[in-house]
Protein backbone atom coordinates (compact mmCIF):
# COMPACT_ATOMS: atom_id res chain seq x y z
CA UNK A 1 0.00 0.00 0.00
CA UNK A 2 1.40 3.38 -1.05
CA UNK A 3 0.13 5.09 2.04
CA UNK A 4 2.03 2.72 4.33
CA UNK A 5 5.08 2.40 2.11
CA UNK A 6 5.42 6.17 1.93
CA UNK A 7 4.55 6.99 5.52
CA UNK A 8 6.98 9.80 6.44
CA UNK A 9 9.95 8.54 8.49
CA UNK A 10 11.78 11.80 9.13
CA UNK A 11 10.74 15.29 10.12
CA UNK A 12 11.67 16.57 6.67
CA UNK A 13 9.43 13.99 5.00
CA UNK A 14 6.38 15.37 6.76
CA UNK A 15 4.78 17.15 3.83
CA UNK A 16 2.67 19.34 6.04
CA UNK A 17 4.93 22.41 5.97
CA UNK A 18 3.63 24.22 9.05
CA UNK A 19 3.79 21.12 11.24
CA UNK A 20 7.30 20.33 10.02
CA UNK A 21 8.62 23.73 11.11
CA UNK A 22 6.92 23.61 14.48
CA UNK A 23 8.21 20.12 15.31
CA UNK A 24 11.72 21.19 14.34
CA UNK A 25 11.52 24.14 16.71
CA UNK A 26 10.26 21.94 19.54
CA UNK A 27 13.05 19.40 19.04
CA UNK A 28 15.71 22.11 18.85
CA UNK A 29 14.48 23.73 22.06
CA UNK A 30 16.38 23.43 25.34
CA UNK A 31 13.75 21.45 27.16
CA UNK A 32 11.15 19.18 25.67
CA UNK A 33 7.48 19.64 26.57
CA UNK A 34 6.20 16.73 28.66
CA UNK A 35 2.90 16.57 26.81
CA UNK A 36 2.01 17.28 23.21
CA UNK A 37 -1.40 17.35 21.61
CA UNK A 38 -1.64 16.62 17.89
CA UNK A 39 -4.93 17.88 16.52
CA UNK A 40 -6.15 17.43 12.97
CA UNK A 41 -8.39 15.74 10.46
CA UNK A 42 -7.91 12.07 9.55
CA UNK A 43 -4.92 11.22 7.41
CA UNK A 44 -2.93 14.36 8.14
CA UNK A 45 0.05 12.63 9.73
CA UNK A 46 -0.60 12.71 13.47
CA UNK A 47 0.34 9.10 14.16
CA UNK A 48 3.27 9.25 11.73
CA UNK A 49 4.58 12.43 13.34
CA UNK A 50 4.21 10.99 16.85
CA UNK A 51 6.40 8.01 15.88
CA UNK A 52 8.97 10.25 14.20
CA UNK A 53 9.07 12.39 17.32
CA UNK A 54 9.58 9.31 19.51
CA UNK A 55 12.44 8.25 17.25
CA UNK A 56 14.00 11.70 17.15
CA UNK A 57 14.32 11.86 20.93
CA UNK A 58 15.52 8.29 21.33
CA UNK A 59 17.80 7.90 18.30
CA UNK A 60 21.35 6.83 19.14
CA UNK A 61 22.98 8.71 16.27
CA UNK A 62 21.38 12.07 15.75
CA UNK A 63 22.37 14.34 18.61
CA UNK A 64 23.93 16.86 18.99
CA UNK A 65 24.38 17.43 15.27
CA UNK A 66 20.87 16.78 14.07
CA UNK A 67 17.36 16.44 15.36
CA UNK A 68 16.35 13.98 12.65
CA UNK A 69 16.10 10.29 13.54
CA UNK A 70 18.76 8.27 11.66
CA UNK A 71 16.31 5.40 10.96
CA UNK A 72 19.25 2.93 11.09
CA UNK A 73 20.16 2.52 14.74
CA UNK A 74 18.51 -0.22 16.76
CA UNK A 75 16.27 2.26 18.58
CA UNK A 76 14.95 3.82 15.37
CA UNK A 77 14.46 0.42 13.77
CA UNK A 78 12.54 -1.02 16.66
CA UNK A 79 10.33 2.06 16.98
CA UNK A 80 9.50 1.77 13.27
CA UNK A 81 8.64 -1.89 13.87
CA UNK A 82 6.53 -0.96 16.93
CA UNK A 83 8.64 -3.19 19.15
CA UNK A 84 10.48 -0.62 21.24
CA UNK A 85 9.76 -1.10 24.94
CA UNK A 86 10.00 2.61 25.72
CA UNK A 87 7.40 3.69 23.22
CA UNK A 88 3.94 2.72 24.35
CA UNK A 89 1.04 3.19 21.95
CA UNK A 90 -2.53 3.13 23.15
CA UNK A 91 -5.47 3.31 20.81
CA UNK A 92 -8.11 5.01 22.90
CA UNK A 93 -10.81 4.09 20.40
CA UNK A 94 -10.69 0.52 21.65
CA UNK A 95 -9.00 0.95 25.06
CA UNK A 96 -10.82 3.83 26.58
CA UNK A 97 -11.65 2.82 30.15
CA UNK A 98 -10.17 3.62 33.51
CA UNK A 99 -8.35 0.27 33.75
CA UNK A 100 -6.43 0.81 30.52
CA UNK A 101 -5.50 4.35 31.51
CA UNK A 102 -4.44 3.18 34.98
CA UNK A 103 -2.22 0.54 33.43
CA UNK A 104 -0.67 3.17 31.24
CA UNK A 105 -0.09 5.49 34.17
CA UNK A 106 1.55 2.70 36.14
CA UNK A 107 3.96 2.32 33.24
CA UNK A 108 4.91 5.99 33.40
CA UNK A 109 6.49 5.43 36.81
CA UNK A 110 9.25 3.29 35.32
CA UNK A 111 12.45 4.76 34.01
CA UNK A 112 13.24 4.17 30.36
CA UNK A 113 14.70 0.71 29.86
CA UNK A 114 16.94 1.43 26.92
CA UNK A 115 15.94 4.80 25.52
CA UNK A 116 16.35 8.35 26.75
CA UNK A 117 12.63 8.94 27.13
CA UNK A 118 9.54 6.85 27.53
CA UNK A 119 6.98 8.06 25.04
CA UNK A 120 3.29 7.41 25.49
CA UNK A 121 1.29 7.86 22.33
CA UNK A 122 -2.46 7.97 22.90
CA UNK A 123 -4.33 7.87 19.60
CA UNK A 124 -7.94 9.03 19.29
CA UNK A 125 -7.50 10.56 22.74
CA UNK A 126 -10.97 12.12 22.74
CA UNK A 127 -12.47 8.63 23.16
CA UNK A 128 -11.13 8.19 26.72
CA UNK A 129 -13.90 7.94 29.32
CA UNK A 130 -14.40 10.70 31.95
CA UNK A 131 -12.84 8.49 34.65
CA UNK A 132 -9.92 7.81 32.39
CA UNK A 133 -9.43 11.52 31.77
CA UNK A 134 -9.43 12.24 35.48
CA UNK A 135 -6.73 9.68 36.10
CA UNK A 136 -4.69 10.97 33.19
CA UNK A 137 -5.04 14.56 34.34
CA UNK A 138 -3.20 13.88 37.59
CA UNK A 139 -0.29 12.38 35.72
CA UNK A 140 -0.19 15.24 33.27
CA UNK A 141 0.01 17.64 36.18
CA UNK A 142 3.04 15.96 37.70
CA UNK A 143 4.59 13.83 35.00
CA UNK A 144 7.74 11.80 35.63
CA UNK A 145 10.77 13.56 34.09
CA UNK A 146 11.55 10.88 31.58
CA UNK A 147 7.99 10.49 30.27
CA UNK A 148 6.56 12.31 27.28
CA UNK A 149 2.93 12.09 26.31
CA UNK A 150 1.68 12.56 22.78
CA UNK A 151 -2.08 12.74 22.51
CA UNK A 152 -3.58 12.63 19.02
CA UNK A 153 -7.15 13.51 18.20
CA UNK A 154 -9.41 14.32 15.28
CA UNK A 155 -11.87 15.87 17.65
CA UNK A 156 -10.53 18.62 19.90
CA UNK A 157 -13.99 19.65 21.12
CA UNK A 158 -14.47 16.30 22.79
CA UNK A 159 -11.26 16.59 24.77
CA UNK A 160 -11.64 18.17 28.25
CA UNK A 161 -10.14 21.68 28.40
CA UNK A 162 -8.21 20.70 31.52
CA UNK A 163 -6.34 18.07 29.49
CA UNK A 164 -5.82 20.22 26.40
CA UNK A 165 -4.47 23.14 28.41
CA UNK A 166 -1.70 20.96 29.84
CA UNK A 167 -0.37 20.01 26.44
CA UNK A 168 1.53 21.87 23.78
CA UNK A 169 -0.83 21.92 20.84
CA UNK A 170 0.34 21.13 17.33
CA UNK A 171 -2.36 21.85 14.79
CA UNK A 172 -2.29 19.54 11.77
CA UNK A 173 -5.54 21.00 10.45
CA UNK A 174 -6.43 19.68 7.01
CA UNK A 175 -3.86 18.69 4.45
CA UNK A 176 -3.36 21.56 2.00
CA UNK A 177 -3.74 20.85 -1.71
CA UNK A 178 -0.18 22.06 -2.45
CA UNK A 179 1.23 19.82 0.31
CA UNK A 180 -0.71 16.82 -0.97
CA UNK A 181 0.69 17.43 -4.45
CA UNK A 182 4.22 17.44 -3.03
CA UNK A 183 3.51 14.07 -1.40
CA UNK A 184 2.02 12.65 -4.62
CA UNK A 185 5.07 13.78 -6.57
CA UNK A 186 7.33 12.14 -3.99
CA UNK A 187 5.51 8.83 -4.48
CA UNK A 188 5.42 9.15 -8.30
CA UNK A 189 9.14 9.77 -8.43
CA UNK A 190 9.94 6.72 -6.42
CA UNK A 191 7.40 4.48 -8.18
CA UNK A 192 8.44 5.83 -11.56
CA UNK A 193 4.93 6.99 -12.39
CA UNK A 194 4.50 9.80 -14.86
CA UNK A 195 1.40 11.90 -14.39
CA UNK A 196 0.70 15.45 -15.48
CA UNK A 197 0.48 18.17 -12.84
CA UNK A 198 -3.21 18.76 -13.53
CA UNK A 199 -3.84 15.05 -13.03
CA UNK A 200 -2.19 15.10 -9.60
CA UNK A 201 -3.98 18.31 -8.72
CA UNK A 202 -7.31 16.69 -9.46
CA UNK A 203 -6.46 13.79 -7.15
CA UNK A 204 -5.42 16.21 -4.42
CA UNK A 205 -8.66 18.15 -4.77
CA UNK A 206 -10.70 15.00 -4.31
CA UNK A 207 -8.86 13.49 -1.41
CA UNK A 208 -10.93 15.03 1.37
CA UNK A 209 -7.82 17.00 2.41
CA UNK A 210 -6.24 13.77 3.62
CA UNK A 211 -2.75 12.60 2.65
CA UNK A 212 -3.85 9.01 3.17
CA UNK A 213 -6.85 9.28 0.86
CA UNK A 214 -4.74 10.95 -1.82
CA UNK A 215 -2.13 8.19 -1.66
CA UNK A 216 -4.90 5.60 -1.93
CA UNK A 217 -6.42 7.24 -5.00
CA UNK A 218 -3.00 7.43 -6.66
CA UNK A 219 -2.46 3.74 -6.02
CA UNK A 220 -5.89 2.73 -7.36
CA UNK A 221 -5.42 4.87 -10.43
CA UNK A 222 -2.01 3.41 -11.17
CA UNK A 223 -3.23 -0.15 -10.70
CA UNK A 224 -6.14 0.49 -13.07
CA UNK A 225 -3.83 2.13 -15.61
CA UNK A 226 -5.80 5.34 -15.61
CA UNK A 227 -3.69 8.03 -17.21
CA UNK A 228 -5.98 10.48 -19.01
CA UNK A 229 -7.55 13.28 -17.00
CA UNK A 230 -10.97 12.48 -18.44
CA UNK A 231 -10.69 8.87 -17.24
CA UNK A 232 -9.67 10.14 -13.84
CA UNK A 233 -12.74 12.37 -13.81
CA UNK A 234 -14.80 9.32 -14.55
CA UNK A 235 -13.13 7.37 -11.82
CA UNK A 236 -13.69 10.16 -9.29
CA UNK A 237 -17.30 10.43 -10.34
CA UNK A 238 -17.14 14.02 -11.45
CA UNK A 239 -17.67 13.37 -15.12
CA UNK A 240 -20.20 15.60 -16.78
CA UNK A 241 -20.74 17.89 -13.81
CA UNK A 242 -21.42 20.84 -16.13
CA UNK A 243 -23.63 18.51 -18.04
CA UNK A 244 -25.88 18.03 -15.07
CA UNK A 245 -26.06 21.78 -14.48
CA UNK A 246 -26.98 22.22 -18.13
CA UNK A 247 -29.72 19.62 -17.71
CA UNK A 248 -30.97 21.35 -14.56
CA UNK A 249 -31.08 24.66 -16.43
CA UNK A 250 -33.63 23.19 -18.81
CA UNK A 251 -35.78 22.05 -15.88
CA UNK A 252 -36.76 18.82 -17.58
CA UNK A 253 -37.36 16.34 -14.79
CA UNK A 254 -37.35 13.27 -17.01
CA UNK A 255 -34.00 14.11 -18.58
CA UNK A 256 -32.62 14.95 -15.16
CA UNK A 257 -33.59 11.60 -13.68
CA UNK A 258 -32.20 9.77 -16.68
CA UNK A 259 -28.91 11.62 -16.30
CA UNK A 260 -28.73 10.70 -12.62
CA UNK A 261 -29.57 7.08 -13.34
CA UNK A 262 -26.82 6.81 -15.90
CA UNK A 263 -24.36 8.49 -13.56
CA UNK A 264 -25.32 6.05 -10.84
CA UNK A 265 -24.97 3.05 -13.17
CA UNK A 266 -21.49 4.11 -14.18
CA UNK A 267 -20.45 4.04 -10.54
CA UNK A 268 -20.06 7.80 -10.06
CA UNK A 269 -19.61 9.25 -6.59
CA UNK A 270 -22.54 11.42 -5.53
CA UNK A 271 -20.48 13.02 -2.81
CA UNK A 272 -17.94 14.31 -5.33
CA UNK A 273 -20.67 15.25 -7.78
CA UNK A 274 -22.49 17.38 -5.21
CA UNK A 275 -19.25 19.00 -4.10
CA UNK A 276 -18.43 19.96 -7.67
CA UNK A 277 -21.89 21.33 -8.43
CA UNK A 278 -22.03 23.32 -5.20
CA UNK A 279 -18.65 24.86 -5.97
CA UNK A 280 -19.86 25.68 -9.48
CA UNK A 281 -23.06 27.27 -8.17
CA UNK A 282 -21.12 29.30 -5.66
CA UNK A 283 -18.93 30.66 -8.41
CA UNK A 284 -22.03 31.48 -10.46
CA UNK A 285 -23.54 33.33 -7.50
CA UNK A 286 -20.40 35.33 -6.78
CA UNK A 287 -20.11 36.13 -10.45
CA UNK A 288 -23.68 37.42 -10.57
CA UNK A 289 -22.98 39.67 -7.60
CA UNK A 290 -19.88 41.04 -9.28
CA UNK A 291 -17.51 39.56 -6.71
CA UNK A 292 -15.83 37.39 -9.29
CA UNK A 293 -14.97 38.98 -12.55
CA UNK A 294 -13.29 35.97 -14.10
CA UNK A 295 -14.59 34.99 -17.45
CA UNK A 296 -16.89 32.03 -16.80
CA UNK A 297 -19.62 30.28 -18.71
CA UNK A 298 -22.74 31.66 -17.06
CA UNK A 299 -25.96 29.70 -16.59
CA UNK A 300 -29.45 31.06 -17.10
CA UNK A 301 -30.75 30.53 -13.54
CA UNK A 302 -31.68 33.64 -11.52
CA UNK A 303 -29.96 34.54 -8.26
CA UNK A 304 -33.01 33.36 -6.35
CA UNK A 305 -33.01 30.04 -8.17
CA UNK A 306 -29.29 29.55 -7.56
CA UNK A 307 -29.62 30.20 -3.82
CA UNK A 308 -32.58 27.91 -3.51
CA UNK A 309 -30.73 25.20 -5.44
CA UNK A 310 -27.67 25.59 -3.22
CA UNK A 311 -29.79 25.15 -0.11
CA UNK A 312 -31.48 22.04 -1.48
CA UNK A 313 -28.22 20.49 -2.61
CA UNK A 314 -26.55 21.18 0.74
CA UNK A 315 -29.39 19.32 2.38
CA UNK A 316 -28.95 16.48 -0.09
CA UNK A 317 -25.23 16.44 0.72
CA UNK A 318 -25.94 16.01 4.41
CA UNK A 319 -28.49 13.29 3.74
CA UNK A 320 -25.92 11.27 1.82
CA UNK A 321 -24.69 9.86 5.12
CA UNK A 322 -27.97 8.22 6.04
CA UNK A 323 -29.58 7.37 2.71
CA UNK A 324 -30.07 3.72 1.73
CA UNK A 325 -29.95 4.69 -1.97
CA UNK A 326 -27.11 7.00 -2.96
CA UNK A 327 -28.95 8.82 -5.74
CA UNK A 328 -32.05 9.55 -3.68
CA UNK A 329 -31.06 12.80 -1.90
CA UNK A 330 -30.11 14.41 -5.23
CA UNK A 331 -33.29 13.21 -6.92
CA UNK A 332 -35.48 14.57 -4.11
CA UNK A 333 -33.61 17.88 -4.07
CA UNK A 334 -34.02 18.40 -7.79
CA UNK A 335 -37.67 17.41 -7.93
CA UNK A 336 -38.30 19.87 -5.10
CA UNK A 337 -36.37 22.51 -7.01
CA UNK A 338 -38.49 22.03 -10.12
CA UNK A 339 -41.69 22.16 -8.06
CA UNK A 340 -40.65 25.49 -6.62
CA UNK A 341 -39.62 27.16 -9.84
N1 LIG B 1 2.33 15.00 6.54
C1 LIG B 1 2.35 13.96 5.73
N2 LIG B 1 3.24 13.89 4.73
C2 LIG B 1 3.24 12.84 3.90
N3 LIG B 1 2.41 11.79 3.98
C3 LIG B 1 1.52 11.80 4.95
C4 LIG B 1 1.45 12.88 5.87
N4 LIG B 1 0.47 12.64 6.72
C5 LIG B 1 -0.05 11.47 6.37
N5 LIG B 1 0.56 10.95 5.30
C6 LIG B 1 0.18 9.72 4.65
O1 LIG B 1 -1.06 9.32 5.20
C7 LIG B 1 -0.94 8.10 5.93
C8 LIG B 1 -1.68 8.21 7.23
O2 LIG B 1 -1.04 9.08 8.10
P1 LIG B 1 -1.25 9.00 9.67
O3 LIG B 1 -1.70 7.64 10.07
O4 LIG B 1 -0.06 9.53 10.32
O5 LIG B 1 -2.45 10.02 9.81
P2 LIG B 1 -3.31 10.37 11.07
O6 LIG B 1 -3.38 11.86 11.14
O7 LIG B 1 -2.81 9.66 12.26
O8 LIG B 1 -4.73 9.82 10.62
P3 LIG B 1 -5.94 9.25 11.53
O9 LIG B 1 -6.57 10.45 12.20
O10 LIG B 1 -6.87 8.66 10.52
O11 LIG B 1 -5.36 8.28 12.49
C9 LIG B 1 0.55 7.88 6.09
O12 LIG B 1 0.83 6.50 6.10
C10 LIG B 1 1.14 8.59 4.91
O13 LIG B 1 1.13 7.76 3.78
MG1 LIG C 1 -3.65 8.14 13.46
ZN1 LIG D 1 18.46 6.32 15.04
TrEMBL record:
Domain AAA+ ATPase: 32-176
Keywords: ATP-binding, DNA replication, DNA-directed DNA polymerase, Nucleotide-binding, Nucleotidyltransferase, Transferase
Gene Ontology biological process terms from the UniProt entry: DNA-templated DNA replication
Reactions the enzyme catalyzes: DNA(n) + a 2'-deoxyribonucleoside 5'-triphosphate = DNA(n+1) + diphosphate
Pfam families xrefs: DNA_pol3_delta2 (PF13177)
CDD domains registered for this protein in UniProt: AAA
GO CC entries: DNA polymerase III complex
EC number(s) reported in the record: 2.7.7.7
GO molecular function, one term: ATP binding
Recorded family membership: Belongs to the DnaX/STICHEL family.
NCBIfam families per record: dnaX_nterm (TIGR02397)
Subunit structure: DNA polymerase III contains a core (composed of alpha, epsilon and theta chains) that associates with a tau subunit. This core dimerizes to form the POLIII' complex. PolIII' associates with the gamma complex (composed of gamma, delta, delta', psi and chi chains) and with the beta chain to form the complete DNA polymerase III complex.
Described function: DNA polymerase III is a complex, multichain enzyme responsible for most of the replicative synthesis in bacteria. This DNA polymerase also exhibits 3' to 5' exonuclease activity.
The protein's name: DNA polymerase III subunit gamma/tau
Amino acid sequence: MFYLKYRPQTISEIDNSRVKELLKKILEGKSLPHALLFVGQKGTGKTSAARIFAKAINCLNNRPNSIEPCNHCRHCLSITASSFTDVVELDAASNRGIEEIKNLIRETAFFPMVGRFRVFIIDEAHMITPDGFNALLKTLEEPPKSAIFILATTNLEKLPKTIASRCLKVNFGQAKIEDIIIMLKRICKSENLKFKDEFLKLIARHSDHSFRDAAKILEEVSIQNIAATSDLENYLGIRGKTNLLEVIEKKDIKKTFLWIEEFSQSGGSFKNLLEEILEELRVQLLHKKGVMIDDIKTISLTTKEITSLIKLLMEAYQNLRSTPIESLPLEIALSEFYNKT
